[in-house]
Amino acid sequence: MNFVGVKPKKTIFFPDRLYETRYTGEIWGKHFEKSKVFNIFSNEKSDLYSTECLGVIHSQKPELITNDSLTGWWEEESLQFRFDGEEYASQNYNLVQNIFSRNTGILETGVLQNKCAFILGCGSVGSLVALELARAGIGKYVLVDNDILEYHNLCRHQCSIVEVGEYKVDALKRRILEINPAAEIEAIVSTVEMLDKPVFDSFCKKDQTVLIGCADNRSADVYANSISVMYGIPFLSIGFWERAFAGEIFYYLPNKGMPCYKCALGEGNSMSQRTSTNRRLYTNEEDLSKVNFEPGISVDINFVTTVGIKLLLDIFNLDNEGYTPRLLPTLTQYTLVCNTNNPKIGGEMAEIFSYPLQVTTSLQVGHGLNCPPCEFE
């Protein structure tokens, strides 16, 4: 049998703004020799995307066209391109329309691009939350974490080996921008407890911001939820039980009469078996050799986190009348998500679940007897 390979498409992708301004000059981006595709990003070098100068666009067809770089020129209202003696088809793109257009009817980018995800903790949970929200069209981010990416993080984190040694917030910021270059991102090397009030004043906006606890530390979530109460904005946390055999999701919506995290779960409510990692990120624990926490494998962490992300999308769309919520009408304020009910992995507590992949829908939490009111007048 004779197999005929697929011929590569000779294509140029270029941004709308070049077309709209009838741009001439240097063009920067990426060239993929095997696929014969040029992806033009902009008219200047970008260290973020490691772009290279691909060639030049002229106002009219030049008399001499070299074969070693991309040559473009304007013919009336259209752009023509040639490289290595061959004509290339051009295809212009708009970042918002082309990246997020397939979400239309499910998620409305026009609504989400003005929303802000205030993410506390940018490890395995926070990195997945951030990138999925970026793909959904969330346009603004505050990333808070004072940790660096290390080799032992790679089996669970969304970033890679080339970013080991970099602050997690900086690596994650770059990853978000690789999905949506128009995103507005504030990367803060800090813990939530150390953030100054002006930071919260600047970013905690009603009907716009959601505080998201991803540090897997109970005390940080207690503190973060108190901030959300103060500013009247929603809060959601994602935490894990030993080896991530199960996880828990808690959310708080202002002005709904809901108990806050401290009121509902406190510092060790018997309903929750959540284990704190006691990382230096959010605690004062100095002797890390005493810590005995196994965080679990990526697929288990991601399953629980994905349920939390679905809830987040519902929360971000609370003021969107055209949006149909996925989980918020079904899941209670406190939800357990089970990866396995095998006691060999989760111990005796695993047996409380009826089957693997169980998601609870009936657990109820209430206001603590000795807790102050969860909402300010």
Describe it.
- The protein has 377 residues and is of the alpha/beta class.
- Helices cover 24% and strands 22% of the residues.
- It contains 10 helices and 14 strands.
- It has helices spanning 16-20, 95-100, 109-112, 124-136, 168-179, 197-203, 218-231, 261-265, 298-316, 343-346; strands at residues 11-15, 25-32, 37-42, 52-58, 70-75, 78-83, 86-93, 116-120, 140-144, 184-188, 209-213, 235-240, 246-252, 334-338.
- Strands 1-3-2-4-5-6-7 form a 7-stranded mixed barrel. A 7-stranded mixed β-sheet has the order 10-9-8-11-12-13-14, sandwiched between helices.
- Helix 4 packs across helix 9.
- 37% of the residues are buried.
- Residues 277-292 have low confidence and may be disordered.
Q: What is the makeup of the main sheet? A: 7 strands, mixed, barrel
- Structural class based on helices, strands and sheet pairing: alpha/beta
Based on CA atoms alone, the radius of gyration comes out at 25 Å
Q: Mean pLDDT, nearest integer? A: 85
Q: Tell me the overall shape.
A: elongated
Distance between the termini: 78 Å
- The stretches of 5 or more residues where confidence is low (pLDDT under 50) are 277-292
**Helix percent band:** 10-25%
User: Largest sheet, order of strands side by side?
Assistant: 1-3-2-4-5-6-7
The helix-strand sequence is EHEEEEEEHHEHEHEHEHEEHHEH
Q: Give the strand tally.
A: 14
The number of distinct helices, counting runs of at least 4 residues, comes to 10
Beta strand %: 15-25%
